[in-house]
Amino acid sequence: MIPQSLSANECRVIGCLMEKSVTTPEQYPLTLNALVNACNQKSARTPVMAISQGTVQQTVRTLEQQHLLRIEENFKRGVEKYTQRLCNSSYSELQFDSAQFAIICLLLLRGPQTPGELRARSGRLHEFADNNEVVTALDSLIENPGDALVIQLPRSPGRKDSEYMHLLGGDVDLEAHARQAAAAQPEKESARSGLAQLEQRLSELEAEVAELKERLG
Known about the structure:
Number of domains: 3
Number of helices: 7
Low-confidence stretches: none
Largest sheet: 3 strands, antiparallel
Strand content: 5-15%
C-alpha cells in the first residue's frame, strides 16, 4: 500500500533515510544519533526542525508498524540502525528510478519547489540535464499507477513557475494554498522594497564618500 497520510515528523525521517542512503552510503543504515542529527540539520531542510531523540524513536516505531522502516539491531552492542522501506526495496510497491527518487526525497525534506529549484538542489542525488527533464520525472510521479505521488500547485504571485508538492502527507487543499501564497505576497514585496531602499541609500552614501574624498584632495 502506498502511504498517503504521513505526519511531518514521519516525512522528515523517511526523507533523511532516503537522502543519506545516497549521499553517505558508508554510514547507512543510520543509528539513532545520526538520524536525529539528519532530521535537525540547519541546511537543506525546510522547515528547520528540532526533533528530540525521544520523538524520533517514537516516529521510528510508528513507521516500522506501517512497514515503511526496518530496524536492524546489534544485540552485542545494543545499537539499532534504521533503513527506509518506502521505496526501492523488495517490500515496497514503489520502485523509483534515480530521478524520481531524488524528487521525492527533496520534496519530503524541503517542501514545495519549482522544477528549477529541484534541479539546483538535486546534485548529490541525481544530475538533471535541464528543467524539462525534471518536469518529465514530476509528470511520471503525478501519473503514478494507482495513486498520484506529486501534485502541481497553482503558481504563486510573483513566481515564474509553479511549485510541486508530494502527496504522502495527504490531500492538498489547492484553494487554501493559493490563499496563503497570495497573503504572503505583500510581505515578500515589502521585503524586496526594503532591500531596494537600502541598496539605494548605500549607493548614495558611497557617492557622498567619493565626493568628500575628492574635496579633501
